[in-house]
Amino acid sequence: MKRLWSPAWIVRHVAMVVLVGAFLGLGWWQLSRAAGGNAISWGYAVEWPVFAGFVVFVWWREVRHALRDPAGPSDDPAAAADPRPAGDSPAAATRPAVRRPVRVTRTAAPVPGGEDADLAAYNRYLRWLNDNPGARPGDYPG
Which spans are transmembrane here (predicted)? Predict the structure, then answer.
């Protein structure tokens, strides 16, 4: 529980309370306008408490996530840059491994018997798009 009283978490707690109070206040204000005859305010009178509920949901999910993490967030940069592999810590056995995606380049195998000119041009275009992942289709020089 001590993790939830760090300066960053105190800011999150205060922001949650302020947002929920503001959203519920705006909902009450819209409810009073709706009762006064403003028909569109009925929708807003429902919408603002939904926003408040969403803020509470996100805050509660973050609290649960912080309490579930056995290591907890660390303000120590040396601990964040720990060079040990994930398998060396006992907590690594309980957490699922997060791996970086592997980029696989595939090129089309030549078709025996040749291709027609339009199909060959289209395949060159697709190969160029595959070789230049950050490029847009409009950047194609061909």
Answer: 9-29, 41-60
Looking at residue 100, the DSSP 8-state letter turns out to be P
Cα pseudo-dihedral 110, 111, 112, 115, rounded to 10:
-110
Q: What average pLDDT score do residues 85-97 get?
A: 58
| Residue (of 15, 17, 43, 12) closest to 30 by Cα position | 43
Please name the residues in contact with 17: beta carbons below 8 A apart, sequence gap of 6 or more.
Answer: none
Comparison of pLDDT for 17 and 116, the residue scoring more: 17
Global pTM value: 0.49
- Classify the C-alpha dihedral 131-136-139-142 as positive or negative: positive
pLDDT of residue 136: 82
Which one-letter DSSP state was computed for residue 90?
G
Q: Smallest Cα–Cα separation from 26: which of 52, 8, 1? A: 52
